[in-house]
Write a structure and sequence with these properties.
318 residues; mainly alpha
Length: 318
């Protein structure tokens, strides 16, 4: 049993030189509360929110509205992440990848985390309602509840399809971005919602392949845990083809022009090359570092960033 496995969730980390409880300095506590919101994940969510606002506005949207939407989105997604860490603190303590999260180290107590998450959930909903619009508030609250209740509490520990359907929560910022400007949801927003829906599994499964032992130890049935690399790679390729195909629907339906289409084709082609290369290595039963599954994971973040930058730039070139 490792030190991480033997430490109960919420126990304070101790250094070998200091057997007593670790101090919780103010600065470290502040950073711990920030960490509860998973800021790196939220960066990606905002990357899909703001460009859609440019598309909905057909140019530069009201900058105050952009700021209000981003702040509301940060609070809402941060609240969902904090609830997730509260619920998953037991399995986080068993996984190397999550062993330094604030509840595991004891830098934040479970009660503090729950109060913090609730405050962000209530505050973000009110923020959207009064400073953006009620539709965006409803979508924001829906995303939070879906992530917490459907993904974290129901799907994550029960089915290998957890990341497929649980990923819907990560798609909703696209609809929030559109609705904040237009106060409705158009087919353009739905298409981009579907792009993120089909992007999420092939984005996350390579990472799950890398840390499969972590999930297996924690009893979380991620697809790589219950299926071999060949089966996972096949699913990655299938989702990748659908994702690229959906991404190309915006232009024929009249929502984007040549610039977005060129970026979508080039980025999609490179994505498919990487996905098929991973499948080839998996079929050859290559394992370990030579499988290079993280190449696709890292490219997936670049892909979605470039695609949505193209969404924002395209209205200016039409």
């Amino acid at each position: 049993m490792t030190a991480v496995e033997s430490r109960p969730a919420g126990a304070l980390s101790r250094s070998p030189e200091s057997p007593g409880p670790v101090n919780r300095p103010f600065g470290a506590r502040v950073m711990a509360f920030v960490a509860l919101t998973k800021p790196r994940v939220i960066e990606l969510l905002l990357m899909t929110t703001v460009p859609v606002m440019f598309l909905a506005a057909g140019g530069v949207p009201d900058l105050w509205l952009v700021l209000a939407t981003c702040l509301g989105g940060y609070m809402s997604a941060g609240g969902a992440a904090a609830f997730n860490m509260y619920i998953d603190r037991d399995i986080d303590a068993m996984m190397d990848r999550t062993s330094q999260r604030p509840l595991v180290t004891g830098m934040v107590s479970p009660r503090e985390c729950l109060v913090f998450a609730t405050a962000l959930a209530v505050g973000s909903t009110a923020w959207f309602w009064f400073l953006v619009n009620p539709l965006s508030a409803a979508l924001s609250l829906g995303a939070l509840l879906f992530y917490v209740l459907v993904y974290t509490m129901w799907l994550k520990r029960r089915t290998a399809q957890n990341i497929v359907w649980g990923g819907i929560a990560g798609c909703l910022p696209v609809l929030i971005g559109w609705s904040s400007v237009a106060n409705n949801v158009s087919w353009a927003a739905v298409i981009l919602f579907l792009v993120i829906f089909f992007w999420t599994p092939p984005h996350y499964w390579p990472l799950s392949m890398k840390v499969k032992d972590d999930y297996e130890r924690a009893g979380v049935p991620m697809l790589p845990v219950i299926a071999g690399n060949k089966a996972v790679a096949k699913q990655i390729v299938l989702y990748s083809w659908v994702m690229v195909g959906v991404s190309l629907l915006l232009q024929p339906l009249g929502y984007t022009g040549w610039f977005y289409t060129v970026v979508a084709v080039l980025c999609g082609a490179f994505w498919l090359k990487e996905a098929h290369a991973l499948q080839t290595r998996a079929k050859a039963e290559i394992t370990g570092a030579k499988l290079k599954e993280m190449r696709l994971f890292h490219w997936s973040i670049t892909y979605v960033s470039l695609l949505f930058v193209a969404v924002a730039v395209d209205p200016f070139l039409r």
